Amino acid sequence: MSKTTQAEKPEVRQKTQKAKKPTKQKAANTEATLVERLLGGEPVALARAITAVENQTERAAEIMAAIHPHLGTASVIGFTGPPGAGKSTLINTFVEELRRRDKSVGIVAVDPSSPITGGAILGDRIRMATHTFDPGVFVRSLASRGHLGGLSRTAAHVIDVMDAAGRDVVVIETVGAGQSEVEIAEIAHTKVVVCAPGLGDDIQAIKAGILEIADILVVNKSDLPLADHTVRHLSAMLGLRDHDAPNVPIVSTTATTGEGMAELADAVDAHGETFATADRRRDPRVRIRRLVAEAAGHLIGVRAKKTSDAEFDALCDRVQRGEIDFDEAAETMLRERMLGLG
Prior knowledge:
seven-stranded parallel β-sheet, globular
């Protein structure tokens, strides 16, 4: 090989590498192809779209904008309740019942994150391993990443992606934090609150919290001795509500045997029909306003923590000296368009 050829070799390699770099037009075409495959229900496209949305990559905004006209067909069912109630096992068996009814399912299982590493064990996915080879079931675990309320911050968007992919039902399982876990009420069409015998005293059963958001109450592990006792106390709690409050059925289940799954699925279907009738009268902008408000709040919080703006620092100093309170400082920050939000 001549010296000239050897000298030209790096240049040729560099030109080849540059040629492989995708142009903006090619990237846009790739994005359009991904959305088309997603709308066609392709599992690989669904997985990639969820990854982009969950990690909030540059592609996420384009994906969400493209799928928005295709949303609103899936039934969204949220399962919440205290740890130890058996939510994961219940959902696993419930999905089997949905598949017997020929419904395609997407599962969003939110697991708690480590406050130190930010990672999550994603144990819910292990309990749902029976659906691994069923193309009609798509399971996605999300780490809460410190987000309060039982969900992750991107859970609503992941649900939308599954909806756009044509899943008949999207099932959400919350972290299982306890009574403050009410964010599911903003997202799910049907809220299923799962209880277990012996997980709380009589007073605990009637406290304000997640029990008040229930569309369906489930007493799981109904083969245990205190199951009937728990059903009675839940019935007593419902009796304290206003007379015009909607009916909330109580379903007894044993997830390990499948007992009560048909009754639970029937109750979910019945509530879904009621919700669909009410939802047609609901202003569609309400949901969009909520999501935009949440995104704005998150953006402000992120920028406020990272900013080195002198005016903002001076505002924080005034709070420290007791001259103004936190609410007044926040109003000043927004009014004067600090943090580059103007």
